[in-house]
Amino acid sequence: MFRNLTIGQHYPVDSPVHNLDPRLKIIFTIIFIISLFLIESFVGFLIVAAFLTVVITISKVPLKFVIKGLRPILFIILVTFLINLLMTPGRVVFSLGFIKITEEGLRQAGFMAVRLTLLIMGTSLLTLTTSPIILTDGIEALLKPFTKFGLPAHELAMMMTIALRFIPTLMEETEKIMKAQKSRGADFESGNIVSRAKNLVPLLVPLFISAFRRADELAMAMEARCYRGGVNRTRMRQMKITKGDYAAAFIFTVYLAAVIVFKIW
Fold first, then answer.
1. Quick one: 102 and 186 in the same domain?
2. What is the pLDDT of residues 215-228, one digit of tens each?
3. Which terminus of the chain has a smaller tally of CB atoms within 10 A, N or C?
4. Are 168 and 7 in contact (CB under 8 A)?
5. What angle do CA 131, 136, 137 make, to 5 degrees?
6. Half-sphere exposure of 191 toward its Cβ, with a 13 Å CA cutoff?
7. Please, is 109 exposed, middle or buried when counting C-beta atoms within 10 Å of its C-beta (0-12, 13-18, 19+)?
8. What is the 3-state secondary structure (H, E, C) of 62-84?
9. Domain range holding 228?
10. CA proximity to 164, closest of 132, 209, 202, 194
11. Domain tally for the chain?
12. Phi, psi for residue 58 in degrees, rounded to 5
């Protein structure tokens, strides 16, 4: 299951989306997330889905690869769907004992499930099309104006990028440890919640040890390369806004305008 996690992974390929300025991609992603919560109709979600499909196609990232990243969060989507389905008041369309399903609940549950699906697919494109180094530069550039107020922009950007980068690594490590523990007779699936929590101890201890070891190795590697943070630090690749960025901004503006129009109507 953990192998299907796409958040934090980079899919290296030459495409117009990969070549976009990282600052714009971060801004686009934030606005995209906001736009999802402005939509209140399935027609609006169809527009988002169509836009997202076009972007994925242009990025040359296989659609199956992006969809595969939804598998680890299917449980969260299902729980969210059921909570909205059963807890939303309104006109009852189905009743079985204390279970009541309303028309508003069906609508709200569908909205939330679709919204979460598009949210994960859209945000995963940011890391899939942007390498960790370039993503760090983009975050740092966006946070740079706040350095006047004492905000350590480079350090924050570095920590955020490393955290994103190590999500799939830790998930793979978790899967390896689980398989090793199961081969030794560990049981992570049977029993009640308390017993399952106790059974996770043999998994958590080596996972934490592995995480600290990786952090120490990374720190030593950065120290060996004379890493000194963002002060007077130069970059091999200078970020510049190109014609492709302007074209992407125009297309994204059209998408955002369509979302706002459907929001008003």
1. no
2. 899 889 988 988 77
3. C
4. yes
5. 100
6. 12
7. buried
8. CHHHHHHCCHHHHHHHHHHHHHH
9. 153-233
10. 132
11. 2
12. -65, -35
Query: 235 CB contacts (<8 Å, ≥6 apart)?
Result: 137
Beta bridge partners of 102: 92
Same domain, 1 and 116: yes
Exposed e or buried b per residue across 6-19, where buried means at least 16 C-beta atoms within 10 angstroms of its C-beta: bbbbbbeeeeebbe
Residues 245 and 119 in one domain: yes
**CA dihedral sign of residues 46, 125, 37, 112:** positive
Residues 224 and 206 in one domain: yes
pLDDT tens column, 124-158: 899 899 988 888 888 888 888 888 888 888 888 88
Identify the DSSP state of 156. H
Cα 102 to the chain's mean position, in Å? Answer: 31
The number of beta carbons lying within 10 Å of the beta carbon of residue 32 is 23
Which tokens belong to 245? 């960025």
pLDDT band (50, 70, 90) for residue 19: very high
